[in-house]
């Protein structure tokens, strides 16, 4: 994946609350182009693989259970400086600390049910995009 791309997924709280369209509108209005998009649900085992990077953290088991509890919407997005600009668009992990106007400030329910994921590096964006989408879905 090119370095002007990032990976995101709408989490079960956001999809369950019917906020999929509103959040995608924010993303497009911020200048991100949708390269790939689907609606799916992770098993606990697949969530564990996706979040293997967090294996040693105290919240890992809860996170995997939560992320496999409902529908998610993974996407690959394209924009100049995509990873950093997207992290700024979604705001801090804890919605209580997220800046006003960010997606998490407006849609997240808690530090765990925080509406949306955003990759934290170009390398992780590529790996996470490849986790959900085959090469021919990434054009
Ligand atoms: P994300 O990966 O989802 O974009 O979030 P992030 O970089 O802001 O946060 P990260 O440290 O990567 O944590 C991944 C997700 O784990 C949940 N979490 N729970 N209970 C807790 O203290 C706690 N801390 C993090 C959140 O859902 C977070 O987005
Ligand atoms: Mg993260």
UniProtKB/TrEMBL annotation:
<feature type="active site" description="Pros-phosphohistidine intermediate">
    <location>
        <position position="117"/>
    </location>
</feature>
<feature type="binding site">
    <location>
        <position position="11"/>
    </location>
    <ligand>
        <name>ATP</name>
    </ligand>
</feature>
<dbReference type="GO" id="GO:0006228">
    <property type="term" value="P:UTP biosynthetic process"/>
</dbReference>
<feature type="binding site">
    <location>
        <position position="59"/>
    </location>
    <ligand>
        <name>ATP</name>
    </ligand>
</feature>
<keyword id="KW-0808">Transferase</keyword>
<feature type="binding site">
    <location>
        <position position="93"/>
    </location>
    <ligand>
        <name>ATP</name>
    </ligand>
</feature>
<dbReference type="InterPro" id="IPR034907">
    <property type="entry name" value="NDK-like_dom"/>
</dbReference>
<dbReference type="InterPro" id="IPR001564">
    <property type="entry name" value="Nucleoside_diP_kinase"/>
</dbReference>
<dbReference type="InterPro" id="IPR036850">
    <property type="entry name" value="NDK-like_dom_sf"/>
</dbReference>
<dbReference type="GO" id="GO:0005524">
    <property type="term" value="F:ATP binding"/>
</dbReference>
<feature type="binding site">
    <location>
        <position position="87"/>
    </location>
    <ligand>
        <name>ATP</name>
    </ligand>
</feature>
<dbReference type="GO" id="GO:0004550">
    <property type="term" value="F:nucleoside diphosphate kinase activity"/>
</dbReference>
<comment type="subunit">
    <text>Homotetramer.</text>
</comment>
<keyword id="KW-0963">Cytoplasm</keyword>
<keyword id="KW-0418">Kinase</keyword>
<feature type="domain" description="Nucleoside diphosphate kinase-like">
    <location>
        <begin position="3"/>
        <end position="137"/>
    </location>
</feature>
<comment type="function">
    <text>Major role in the synthesis of nucleoside triphosphates other than ATP. The ATP gamma phosphate is transferred to the NDP beta phosphate via a ping-pong mechanism, using a phosphorylated active-site intermediate.</text>
</comment>
<dbReference type="GO" id="GO:0005737">
    <property type="term" value="C:cytoplasm"/>
</dbReference>
<dbReference type="GO" id="GO:0046872">
    <property type="term" value="F:metal ion binding"/>
</dbReference>
<dbReference type="GO" id="GO:0006241">
    <property type="term" value="P:CTP biosynthetic process"/>
</dbReference>
<comment type="similarity">
    <text>Belongs to the NDK family.</text>
</comment>
<feature type="binding site">
    <location>
        <position position="104"/>
    </location>
    <ligand>
        <name>ATP</name>
    </ligand>
</feature>
<dbReference type="Pfam" id="PF00334">
    <property type="entry name" value="NDK"/>
</dbReference>
<dbReference type="GO" id="GO:0006183">
    <property type="term" value="P:GTP biosynthetic process"/>
</dbReference>
<keyword id="KW-0479">Metal-binding</keyword>
<keyword id="KW-0547">Nucleotide-binding</keyword>
<keyword id="KW-0460">Magnesium</keyword>
<keyword id="KW-0597">Phosphoprotein</keyword>
<protein>
    <recommendedName>
        <fullName>Nucleoside diphosphate kinase</fullName>
        <ecNumber>2.7.4.6</ecNumber>
    </recommendedName>
</protein>
<keyword id="KW-0546">Nucleotide metabolism</keyword>
<keyword id="KW-0067">ATP-binding</keyword>
<feature type="binding site">
    <location>
        <position position="114"/>
    </location>
    <ligand>
        <name>ATP</name>
    </ligand>
</feature>
């Amino acid at each position: 994946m090119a370095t002007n791309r990032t990976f995101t997924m709408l989490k079960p709280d956001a999809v369950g609350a019917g906020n999929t369209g509103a959040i995608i509108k924010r993303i497009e209005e911020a200048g991100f182009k949708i390269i790939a998009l689907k609606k799916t649900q992770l098993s606990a085992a697949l969530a564990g693989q996706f979040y293997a990077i967090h294996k040693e953290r105290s919240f890992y088991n809860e996170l995997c259970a939560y992320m496999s509890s409902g529908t998610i919407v993974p996407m690959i997005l394209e924009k100049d400086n995509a990873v950093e600009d997207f992290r700024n668009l979604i705001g801090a992990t804890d919605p209580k600390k997220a800046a006003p106007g960010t997606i998490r400030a407006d849609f997240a329910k808690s530090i765990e049910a925080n509406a949306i994921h955003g990759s934290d590096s170009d390398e992780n964006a590529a790996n996470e995009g490849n986790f959900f989408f085959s090469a021919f879905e990434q054009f």
